[in-house]
Amino acid sequence: MRTALHKIATLGPEKVDGPLDPDRVAQLVQETVGRWASITGQWVVVQDLEHDVLVYDNGLTSAFAQHGEPATLECLRARIPEQERARVRHLQQVFRVTVEHCTPCRSGADCALTLTHRHRSPKGRFGRLQRHVLPLLWSSDGRVRAMLHLCREVGQLHGVHGAGAWSLTGPDALHEDFVARLKELGPDTWTPSARERELLQLMAQGLTSQVIATRLHRSLHTVNTHRRNMLRKAGVSNTTALVEQALKLGWV
To answer: pTM surpassing 0.85?
Structure first.
């Protein structure tokens, strides 16, 4: 992933106002990620944000399309469980707005949003999908015109742990602005309940789940379930990141 980000940074931001040239898009993808999507279970797509359609597909059609029909954005979105679909799309929309307001990103600095969420395979099984989202093309007015999605299956997902997790690659200002916008924009941002805040207070003290369970007179299973649910709701992948977000947003 670092190699892909480095390559896209050295290319600099390319601006397009008219129709996207499929050959140029394909060339940019190859220069950015090479043959990355040729590995089994991985694919690369490019989304034209102006028209909300796919303009490039390497691996998605072979993985998901039925009866030889080309894959579409609707096909990809339909694989995400309905209860998570809105949050995944919301995170991507906030990332786009944040990138468009980040001066280093507009100048070609590394920036990417990594999402981990549940998805359904063609065989109907639910697993975990990791998706790296990067701006590929810009319009002359400073808006992101096309996004590159690098996707790969990363194994089975047990319960809900890890669903909806996110991380950012980019300047510090990008991360700070992204977190602030998540707090301010849209109904999909999670706000912890009073009981969850109580748990976060104890987690921020560095206490283990067993100690927290004893102090709150609850079972270890209950505490661990609350912890997993908070990771999913907050969109982070580990307890350290959860506590950092809690402190930054004033939850504790």
So the answer is: no
